[in-house]
Structures are given as C-alpha cells and as structure tokens.
Design a protein that fits this description.
Structural class of chain B: mainly beta
Number of strands of chain A: 11
Strand content of chain A: over 45%
Radius of gyration of chain A: 13 Å
Largest sheet of chain B: 5 strands, mixed
Strand order of the largest sheet of chain B: 1-9-8-3-4
Order of helices and strands of chain B: EEEEEEEEE
Distance between the termini of chain A: 36 Å
Helix content of chain A: under 10%
Shape of chain A: globular
Structural class of chain A: mainly beta
Distance between the termini of chain B: 35 Å
Number of strands of chain B: 9
Number of helices of chain B: 0
Helix content of chain B: under 10%
Oligomer: heterodimer
Number of helices of chain A: 0
Chain lengths: ~120, ~110
C-alpha cells in the first residue's frame, strides 16, 4: 500500500484565499484524523472521522475551517478565508479501529504558508 | 488535553540505551500505552504499544509498571538516526476515542 497520501505537499497563498488540503487514507482503514502542527502549539487534533462520519470536531479552531469525508478513500480540509496564523504543517492520519495493533499511520503532511 | 507527562528533552550517547519515561497516572483499565516518534518534519511514526505486559519489537522495548501509572520506552542501542521527538499517548481501542498528542520528549543522540 502507498500509505496515507496528502496533497499538496507545500502551499503558499495570500491572506484571504481559500485553501483546500486533501487526504487519501490507507485502503481499509475506517478512521481518519486531521492534525495541525506548529512550533508553539505542537501537534493538535482538529477533527476525526469514523466510517466517514465526523465524530469530534471540537479541535477545529473556528468557522473558517471545515472538513469533509465524502467516501472512505478521500477527505478534505478547507480553510476559507485563510489567515497568516493558519500557517502550519497539516497532517492526515488513518487507522483501523478497533484493531489489535492500533497503529496510526500519518501522511507526509501539507506545509501551508499564508502570507 | 494529553493524558501523559513527559520530560521536554533528554540526551543520550550514541550506542547506549535510551530510556524515555512517561507518566500516565490517570490511565483507565481499557487504555493502552502507545509510543510514536517524529523525525524532523516527517509525520509521527508508530513504535510500540502495550496494555500491561512488557513488550519488545525490532525497534524498542516498552516497560509498563505494575500499577500502569508510568512506562519507559527503551531504545537499546541508540544511533544518531534515533534523534527525534518521542510521544507517549494513552488511548482505548474504542472507535470514538480521541488520539491526543502531548509535547513529547525531544531526544538528542550525542556522537
């Protein structure tokens, strides 16, 4: 399997623009997580899905952020409008739950810079 | 909030065993202890996990105290490539359980 695939790997945009980050989880995994990482705040959980249904979005910073999972093989995280403080690395991760190993697989991340 | 406490940083000489502690005093009976590491700007990588017995795999060993309130990750022969941030987390296998990462321990392997 190719692992968790995220795109784009790098995005530079201007304040006010819409940003869409994409994630393809590992085939067969039924839970998907979106994290944001910054030096100041570390690795923050934004939202997670189980069987394509959002379970907890309490980590989403504000209404400018939204996430969808229309099917088991695709998820998006959208920021509209973007602001400089949204600059961070956004990670997507997937896992099979329940599972014996409980191993969470991460993508390589999308590095977002908002000017 | 993370349910674990770890020292912010540690040093270890190359070739020696690196022992990384983690406190999880509020762990529940159905919660597992997991360890991940993050090398530079890559996504975190799974290392090992356990419930109450000690565990060993090709990467590391996990020692969990009898009361399960703390654990230690052991890298038996640390190399420079083990320099990373190590995260200890606790979670159940419940499908609705959050996976929360704390600040982790930044391990520096010294040549």
């Amino acid at each position: 399997d190719a692992g968790v695939i995220q795109s784009p790997r790098h995005e530079v945009t201007e304040m006010g623009q819409e940003v869409t980050l994409r994630c393809k989880p590992i085939s067969g995994h039924n839970s998907l997580f979106w994290y944001r990482q910054t030096m100041m705040r570390g690795l923050e959980l934004l939202i997670y899905f189980n069987n394509n249904v959002p379970i907890d979005d309490s980590g989403m910073p504000e209404d400018r952020f939204s996430a969808k999972m229309p099917n088991a093989s695709f998820s998006t995280l959208k920021i509209q409008p973007s602001e400089p403080r949204d600059s961070a690395v956004y990670f997507c991760a997937s896992i099979m739950t329940p599972a014996n190993t409980g191993e969470l697989f991460f993508g390589e991340g999308s590095r977002l810079t908002v000017l | 909030d993370a349910k674990t406490t770890q020292p912010p940083s540690m040093d270890c000489a190359e070739g020696r065993a690196a022992n990384l502690p983690c406190n999880h005093s509020t762990i529940s009976g159905n919660e597992y202890v997991y360890w991940y590491r993050q090398i530079h700007s890559q996504g975190p990588q799974y290392i090992i996990h356990g419930l109450k017995n000690n565990e060993t795999n090709e990467m590391a060993s996990l020692i969990i105290t009898e009361d399960r309130k703390s654990s230690t990750l052991i890298l038996p022969h640390a190399t420079l490539r083990d320099t990373a941030v190590y995260y200890c987390i606790v979670r159940s296998s419940n499908r609705d359980d959050k996976i929360i990462f704390g600040k982790g321990t930044r391990l520096h392997i010294l040549p």
